[in-house]
Write the structure tokens for this entry.
Amino acid sequence: MVTALEELSVSADLLVTTGGVSMGGEHDVVKAALSSFAIRFRKVAMQPGMPQGFGLIGFGGTPVFTLPGNPVSAFVSFLLFVRPAMQALQGLAPAPLPVTRARLAGPVRSPEGRRSYLRGVLDHRAGTVIPLTGQGSHQLGALARANALIVVPEDVVRMEEDEPADVVSLP
């Protein structure tokens, strides 16, 4: 794997891996393989997508993002971290995803100390967002139905129906 990444770094502008970066797990193969490079692995106070890594690899210092392995975690991490980096590498002005306020059509929960990005269906006309069931980071069904991410701040553990929330529109 290391050899492949080093070879790719010669012609790539950016490298992205998924999986193998959890914090302390026995399956942290990407983390172990990249330990000799200037890659920093951190727990980010978010859900999904807590384990993250970033650094440079190869002679030219190609940026590499190491994203979590669960598909929803990787998707959310890509939107929040990799997408803006790709825009910068292309010389584009930052184009953040649109954020609106909407009333929750049902209650939501979030772990204490983490910013949550929960899948939902935003109805722009009604100004509401429906939280979807199946919020696990391995559950793709809710992501397939979602057109938005409901943002629950890290200092909030529960939001009630009809409460306003920030909502990120998905591309």
Observations:
- DSSP finds four helices and twelve strands in the chain.
- The mean pLDDT is 92.
